[in-house]
Amino acid sequence: MSFLDDIFARLETSPDAVFVRELRDGHNPAITGRELLERITKARTFLASQRLKKGDRVALLGHNSIDWVAVDLAIMAQGSIVVPLYARQAPSELVVMMKDCEPALICCGDAALRDGIVQEWPDSPPRHLFADILATKTGNPAASLIEESDPVSIVYTSGTSGEAKGVMLTAGNIGHMLGCTSERLDTLVEKRPGVEKRPGQDRVFHYLPLCFAGSWIMLLTCLLRGSQLALNTDLTKLAGDIRTAAPDYFLNVPQLLERMRKAVDEQLWKTGGIVHTIYRKAKSAWMRKQEHKPSFADSIWLACAKSAVFPTIRKKMIGSNLKALICGSAPLSVETQQYFMMLGIPVLQVYGLTETTAICTMDDPHQVEPGRVGPAIRGIEMKLGENGEIIVRGSNVFPGYWNRTHETAEALRDGWFHTGDQGEADASGNWKIIGRMKNLIILGSGHNIAPEPIEDELLQNLPGAQQAVLVGNGRGYLSVIFTGAMAPQQAQAAVDAVNLAMPHYKQIRVFHIHAEPFSIENGLLTANGKLRRDLIATRLKGVIEEMYAVKQAV
């Protein structure tokens, strides 16, 4: 049996349970196991009428919705390969990916998305809206015949260098991963002191685009476990939707956790009074505790906050049911992870790439160490190759890139997938990610510098900054570009604070404040929010040259 058979069996055995619901301004449509199976069958009937062959690619372009879930499962059940695409991405970029994978048809969530593709690609393959696909009369599609080695999805990577590659994932990759994630969630939802164990389904909140590999794995895991998944449909309403969903856990990116942390700080600063005093004193006490430098009164302030302040923050932020936040996609700062731990909210980190079916490591809920991302998951081997590069092998590793023989050979060597990430593991096998190999800055002096840890520290010292990008490849020293609203004096203070703890070659000599943040819309962030460093360097070449010219002239 494939993972799809297992999911369909779960839907059949829980026909009246709600599996997915959308959060839409108080109007929250939901779908039961029986109804979802009916919708999948309608989509399969439509797809069968298109006379698709096994292995044909079908592009899936839409915002998160119940219909997206039904069409996604139907495409795979028909033996086709689903190609999920990011609805917020520019049509020109989407068309490049579609031309690469040559889909037999394109399934669109709405007319605006469809029309954007038509404008860029007038002679594109047939395009059909979800509504039309799911209006088909129910037929009797054949049973799904998926082998473990069959590719079921092509997920395009973010393309930090400007060019995305299609990662093929097989039924075997997905099946293995769902077993691992479900096991870890079983551990998470065990009865824990101070957390109510609610009988029945896990409640899971979800706001990340389902087209991303990690997000998709969370969706499939929820379906397999019979959890109830609440889909956010408007990012401006995240805070209220989280409270409405009252989740047991949900998947996050570091950016949201940073925003949540800053929002609490700002709100309590505005509130002032004794509550703010207790909060501020308790935060300082907590940090001294982590540094093993407690003062006499620290235990008093922490006790006051734990009884009078932290419970209110938790309830307003994420409700009373939460067992943990799960965080992936990018490195999470130690300070932010410790902050949530101070509030009594565990943050479990996950590390992986699209090529590893989204996950290589997962934190053990019983043994979380801030700054590390947990041990390798079951059945996965991880070790360090040349220059501290993490290499991986196991059932989670993809078979190759779509139509890219050379890139596949480069990534998969001697049975190991070369991640391009630098890392280290402690004696217990708990991993820490240091940075990307290709992001290394090599100064003219020959010093190799991973920019990510320094950038994270700068942002911790400069709340007004949205991004910090270190530059200096081939130069005599480091410089940094900040984006966001800040005064030069604030930026200088942050640079000075970071420089204090750095050796001479890691010290920053010059900074530049770039008012416009880097974004997906201006092409300087990838679809999942990572810096496109090469494009930033090209776009801001004049700025960078000026920074070095100014310093040399001084």
Number of β-strand runs: 25
The CATH C-level name of the largest domain is Alpha Beta
In terms of per-residue confidence, which ranges show pLDDT below 50 for 5 or more consecutive residues? none
Largest sheet: spatial strand order: 2-1-10-9-11-12-13-14
Task: Give the termini separation.
Answer: 70 Å
Mean pLDDT: 91
Structural class: alpha/beta
CATH topology value of the largest domain: Rossmann fold
Into which percent range does the helicity of residues fall? 25-40%
Name the overall outline. Answer: globular
Quickly give the CATH architecture of the largest domain: 3-Layer(aba) Sandwich
Q: Sheet with the most strands?
A: 8 strands, mixed
Proportion of residues in β-strands: 15-25%
How many separate domains make up the residues? 3
Short key terms for the protein model shown above:
single chain, 554 residues, 3 domains, five-stranded antiparallel β-sheet, eight-stranded mixed β-sheet, 39% helix, Rossmann fold, alpha/beta, 19 helices, 25 strands, GMP Synthetase, Chain A, domain 3
Tell me about this structure.
This protein is α/β, with parallel strands linked by helices and about 550 residues long. The protein starts with a helix and ends with a helix. The chain is globular, with a radius of gyration of 24 Å.
